Amino acid sequence: PVVVRRRLVDHGDGWVHITTTLRVPDELADPPRVGTEWVLPGSLSRVEWFGEGPHECYPDRRASARVGRWTSAVDDMYEDYVVPQEHGHRSGCRWLALRGTRTGRGAAPGLLVVADPTVGDGTLGVAARRHGDHDLWACTHTDELVALTATRPTRTYLYLDAAQRGLGTASCGPDALDEYRIGGGTHTVSVWCRSFAPADEDPGELARRVRQRR
Questions:
Q1: Which of 67, 110, 119, 179 is 20 to 30 Å from 96 by CA-CA measure?
Q2: What share of the chain is helix, strand, coil (3-state, %, to 5)?
Q3: Residue 214 reports pLDDT greater than 70
C-alpha cells in the first residue's frame, strides 16, 4: 500500500505549514500522479497563480509555457476532451490563490497556498478544477460528466502534485518517455497556506514574504 503521513503546524500568525509525505512501493510505480486532493467550496471560483501558463502544461509539454502571474476562472480551466480525463495541470507553480468573484469590501476571504521553497525545486504541479479524478474516471462522455455534477453542490478540487506523469499511455500513439514516469519511493508535498482578504492583501506579496523568511 501507499503510506501517507501528514504533519500540520499552526504558526499562530495566520500561516499553517502542511507537509504530506507519500511512500509509493516499487510494485505501484508509474502512477498518473502523486500528490494531494483538496475538496473546497465551489464559491472559490477564481484562480491566480505564479508559475507556468497560461495554458495547461505537463512535465513533458512545457516548451510553449511561460513563467508568469496568471489568472482564470476555475470553470475556464476545463479542457473539453472527447473523453473526460486528466486536464488543467500547470507545472512549476510557486504559489496559487483561490477566491470568489467579488474583490471589493465585504468580499469573502480567499485561500493562498505557497510551495515550500526548501523542498525540491521549490515548486509544485497544480490544478484547480470542478471535477475530481474520480468523476473523470467514472464518465466516458462529457454529457455524463455534466449530469453527474448537476446532482450535487458545486465544488472546487485543488490538486497539489509532487510528481505528475508525462502524457501518453500507448493506447493511441507513443507512451511517455521513461524520464517522465513516476518511480517508487518517497514524494513530498509541502506548502504554507493562509486565508487572505482580496480587497486588502496581494497574494503575490504574501507569498514572497513567506518564501523569503522560510
A1: 179
A2: 15, 40, 45
A3: no
